[in-house]
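Q: I'm building a small set of examples for a reading group on sequence design. Run inverse folding on the following structure and report the sequence directly after it, with nothing in between.
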């Protein structure tokens, strides 16, 4: 069986985007938790699994379902914690700087006031999202792009992971998270590494939302908070660099160099028609939300 090609991942990305933007919004609007399970498994994971089975691909290899060393599993937790701080700092700084011109949509996930809601959010936002999204982005999508080079695969996985959230207020922060998850999966060779990190990241977000008592990001950030998060983010970033350095010292991944020039790569990635449509569609959605905010 021939290796998975990037263009195949592009087709599936467009399919997922269209499903999430249409049927996904409807089912999540009816019941957010049941909707999340439906969209994560039914729209993101199951189509990819069925395709790999039908085509006879090595599913374990493509999805990076490989054994993760215990020491790396332990490293995933503090990596996610510090990564959350950096990602949050990036988001707050971004909203402070451009919040007047971009839409910061309300979080559709309700505040987990009671134990039942909290448990449901851990199961859906935490576990289900980490499982399905990591198998898709750090498994299927990233593997498809590794033919163009490991570095490019990591960056593409992070960027298009962020774009799929269609949230202009959190776009840079989610992109940073996506790249961190992709790099961690690349270093260990296992999707379980990024899966654990993704779960911990979402778990922290749920806990913070519960403690904060609000499910919405504010488009107005006080100057004091802005300065505090710059300092905290810088400290967290320096700590993260040391942690990444330690991860790098304990792993020996299979590095695949970029074999083509940037122009050729872009023509087969972002400029490939499914990704071009996806990109225009997502940017158009975010621009429309921001325009409505300006007009209002």
């Amino acid at each position: 069986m021939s290796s998975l090609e990037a263009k195949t991942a592009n087709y599936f990305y467009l399919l997922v985007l269209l499903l999430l933007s249409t049927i996904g919004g409807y089912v999540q609007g009816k019941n957010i938790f049941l909707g999340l399970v439906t969209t994560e498994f039914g729209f993101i994971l199951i189509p990819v699994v069925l395709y790999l089975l039908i085509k006879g691909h090595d599913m374990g290899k493509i999805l990076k379902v490989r054994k993760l060393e215990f020491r790396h599993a332990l490293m995933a937790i503090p990596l996610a914690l510090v990564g959350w701080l950096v990602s949050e700092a990036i988001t707050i700084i971004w909203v402070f700087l451009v919040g007047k011109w971009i839409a910061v949509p309300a979080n559709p996930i309700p505040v987990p006031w009671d134990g039942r809601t909290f448990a449901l959010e851990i199961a859906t936002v935490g576990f289900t999202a980490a499982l399905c999204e990591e198998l898709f982005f750090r498994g299927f999508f990233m593997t498809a792009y590794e033919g163009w080079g490991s570095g490019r695969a990591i960056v593409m996985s992070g960027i298009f992971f962020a774009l799929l959230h269609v949230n202009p207020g959190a776009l840079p922060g989610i992109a940073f998270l996506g790249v961190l998850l992709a790099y961690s999966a690349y270093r260990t060779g296992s999707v379980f590494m990024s899966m654990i990190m993704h779960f911990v990241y979402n778990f922290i977000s749920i806990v913070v939302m519960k403690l904060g008592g609000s499910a919405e990001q504010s488009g107005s950030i006080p100057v004091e908070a802005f300065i505090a998060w710059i300092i905290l983010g810088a400290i967290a970033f320096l700590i993260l660099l040391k942690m990444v350095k330690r991860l790098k010292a304990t792993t020996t991944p299979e590095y695949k160099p970029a074999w083509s020039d940037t122009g050729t790569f872009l023509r087969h990635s972002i400029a490939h028609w499914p990704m071009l449509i996806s990109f225009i569609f997502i940017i158009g959605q975010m621009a429309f939300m921001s325009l409505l905010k300006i007009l209002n």
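Residues 40 and 206 are 18 Å apart (CA to CA).
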